[in-house]
Amino acid sequence: MKKILTYLLLLSGVIYYSCDKPAPTELTDENNNDDGTEYEIVTENLNDNYYNSGADTSGITQDLTGRANIISVSGIKITNGNSTERFSLAQAIFFDLNKPVRLSNGKIIGYETIVGGNIKFDNHNARIVPHKIRFRDRGMLKDTTLGGKYMLFKGKWGHDPFEYNYNSSIQFQYSLLGFPLVDFDIPTPPEINGSLVINGTRNERNIQARVKWNGRGFGKVIIVVGVIKNGQNFSIPVYKIKTRDDGELIIPRRFFSNFPFEEFGKIVFTLVRSYEDSHTGQNSTLFVSSQSIHSIVIEIP
Amino acid sequence: MISSINIYCQDSFELTGYWGLPNTVTGTVLGFESNPSNFSFIKDWQFNILYGSEFSGEVNSTLYSIGISKTISAHNISVRYTPGYQKEFIQSTGETIIFNDSSSQSLSASYNYKELFGFGYSYKFSSQLNTGISLRYFNQEFNREIGTPVFGDTSNYFIRENLNEKINTWKADIGIDFNLNDKFKFKAATVNLLNFGDETQNDEFKGFELKQDLNAFIAASYLPAEQINFNLLFETSKSFQAGITGSAGNFIYGLTSFHDTYQQPFIAGVIPAFGYKNDFINVLLSGIKYFTDRKSSQDFNNFSSEGIHNIINNGYSYDKAVLSVSFVLNTLEVQKLKLIDVETVSDIYPALLNNYLSTPFAYGTVVNLTNENLEVKPSSKINGMHNEEIQSPSIIINPFDTVKVPYYTVIPENYKGDKPVLSYADFYIATSNNEPEDHIQKAILVNGINAWDGKVINLRYFINRDINFSMNYSKTVLSSYKELLDTIPAALSVFYKAKLLFNDFIKRLVYTSDPRATAEYVQFPKQTIEIKGGDCDDLSVAYCSLLESVGIQTALVDYKPDGDVRHVNVLFNTELDPNQAKFITTNDNKYFIRANNKSKDEIWIPVETTSLTDFNDAWNIGVEKFNKDAIDDLGIAKGTVEIIDVY
Asked: Domain limits at B407?
């Protein structure tokens, strides 16, 4: 009897080890065939940021690397407490990729710009202003101007006549003596309106953020999470999250549990719904960006 | 951490279908799903293995379960290991982390549900009622890749981590089976009665645990014939299973269709099964065919909102083919015969010796539990008389028949008990392999060695008992009359021998009535001669024994009671031809012509053994009583007088 049982158990063991696992079932989100959510840390060192555009995050959300000609229009809202300010911004920057600007260690941090010709947004002539960047080199904080850029800005500090019309289009014109007129419309996305629910506190390291907005159900939005140091008025972006434009995103607790909140007083959630395209001219390609931006600034609980 | 938790696990679905309670399949003994009471026909050990393949576009072969059970008396315990009772889901979470070098990593998650072990215990109260409990162990393991930010003094970056949680849970259920009769059988059981174990800690995984409400099921089987049984099982979750099962010879089949509340369409699938069984092995090939297309890729949103209620049968399960093999490892024979009762028809009279070789002293009521003809070997053993069983003749019992089986016995010649004893007898039945199938013990009265059952025919056993003594006695007497015997005609030799023996015999005897009040007491010839007396039984027995010991044919004349006491005397064969009667008497009324044992007519004369004067008186009295009772009163015709040949 014992022998028979032993043989049977041995046989079972042989069968067991020669078997497969039952086939798994792969689960997919049938409602969304596109990619889900991308998470990226955009500031490798919170002390080495060189963006100084304050609440204007339009330059932050765009990866300008390798792009020579950039046309950008933005409709921006900044909600701080109970007040919301609106801004309209139009910019055109032309980089000379043959003239890189480097840190002492040789790392390229930008290119010198080129200014020439006349640019209009919705028939409003753009002004030429310095294109400045701030960076840390060998421990020293430095400001430098890379050249000029074209800009129209309407809002708290600007009074240009340009108005960013949502869910519409903006006419762009570029004229340079001796060259044919470059003329096209830049589509504008619907206005994005966000809201925020924050649970937890920095002391308990259990902050969790639920970001809501008027989702379209298709396409993507970018949410940039930044922080503002005490006594300063510009944000340092930390996370760039690209997700479905479905109206809600819960940012997990672990994203904040190890964050060094000690130096920072405020946290900024910037929602960006953008339209990006490239426009090919005779000799060059223009990168065109149109963004609806809503930044929400709150005290870190 | 052990805590109470509302995680529910499984229902009554089984890979081989639902078989109800017919005894056509033994493999279901280890199916805790539809058999929480562990009802089993197995008498000893059973080993069960379920092996199968799953068709998900590719074929995966899996060992579903290994189990073993053991029946000890009315208790049954079972253990099973179920490595194939598992279901894994893998998911691309849709999340991607981008590292500082611009490389990216998509994140995934997995949800793995396993049932690993099961234990069962049952107790059979009777052939109609069985109840039991099953205890099953589940393991759920959830994994999710996450991007965790790290903030350093000089660099911030993402790392990929694995979030993992294992939840170990137990569940217990009870069940009861009731066999109303051979045609209607019922069972009822709980589903997810008790659940206990770990509680999900991580918010990311809450809601993904196995789901199912507390339920119960009831089931009924109707067995109009062995070839076809109808089975129906209904769960309070509003799921049900219906099927037919049956057997033809050694072949078995089953077809179960099932409705699952949590699956589409209404009849979610069928489970056909076909197999072979004999006393030692049960092989069953079954399959599960779902009526919806089971894709290897399905919607996460449904899974997230509805979860699964059963590991082996859910909306994501694939079609399967399952081979079930059960080995019946009996060290004990499965009972084929049952001894329902034994009726003792006679007390034991040790003096009767071989009487019990031809006359049963008891009858057993035996039923053949199998579907084949069985040779039944009855045997018995009387305590204080036998050291081993006494076999009775075998008989054949037809399938499922109930018959009366006679028990015979043998009285040991050396049995000396002189007082009645209330003893007991063990009655056995066995099949051809001589292993006892069943056994009953009954009280029985064993009388003393001189007890007589009152049947005159049985006095022959007393006559024969001391035949050697009688032979010596007769030869001694006759040798003393050798000269006389030598001078008489040979034809009269028997007559004179009988006369001389009688006259010698009675010289030292007195007649006494039966000294025992209840059972009649008969002395053996030696006793009668030694104690010099006896009643009519004793004297007739002794005289017959003396005559028979020298070859004289005798018969006992039984004058049956007619308001008076019963009487016995002796008739012996003179071996004279009827025309030689005149050599012994001229009175034709003093002898009778009877056929001897060779059918030859010869002269017989009656002797009243209680007449202790001489042979002639005894002859005359014997003749007188015989003529009156047997002839004039038509006693022989009426049956009140019976002549019983001693041999």
From this structure: 337-446
